[in-house]
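Example 223, ligand S-adenosyl-L-homocysteine.
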Amino acid sequence: MSEAPEAPLTPEELAERKMRFLFGLRSKGVTEARVLAAMERIDRGDFVRGIFAARAYEDMPLPIACGQTISQPSVVGLMTQALEVGPRDTVLEIGTGSGYQAAVLAHLARRVYTVDRHRRLVREAEALFQRLDLTNIVARAGDGSRGLSEQAPFDRIIVTAAAEDPPGPLLSQLKIGGIMVLPVGQSDTVQSLIRVKRLETGFDYEELRPVRFVPLVEGMASD
Ligand code: SAH
């Protein structure tokens, strides 16, 4: 397959695109200064490869390796905002994918653990974290529907693939006072983003907005 070579962007064009990217996030409701600052520091262009790299600053999900997707930036921003991450928090992300969401979280949290069922995605994301000097992210290959019991409990949990219900192991690995943000839904097309708070006495559920994510699949992938 051949593709037309694209002229590299001038520094001015790149700056202009990034400004529009941040403006677009604000207009979709990503208004918290800390979240916007983290998203300004992490260049989404580093997480998108090949022919889709030119679209890295558009507010749309894009294909990555292993048939998965990097989420839409405004959704990354809104989920990060809903997670209310503090600088002392330990965060668990299920669904490393490109590593973009984990990289944004790394600027807000003390430590980020991220898990994916595709070893290849974990390997590639780890290499990228190293190159970008994001030393507070630990990436692991595993079935994230079981959480990461060795490192539990977590202050915050974010799931970037949709399950029918919040997986039990994740609920039990959330600290009291902790927050989990995840898409839930019975089909690929109708899903809601929900926020779960763990209280002393149980869980509080809040529905945030409709979303569309790839499914949370149990077990490891073959690649
Ligand atoms: N957060 C990612 C986007 C994730 S796409 C980013 O910023 O780019 C959803 C990811 O969830 C995919 O990479 C998929 O492999 C992963 N996934 C699906 N089911 C999983 C499971 N049970 N455990 C871990 N990862 C899972």
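Summary: The first helix runs from residue 11 to 27.
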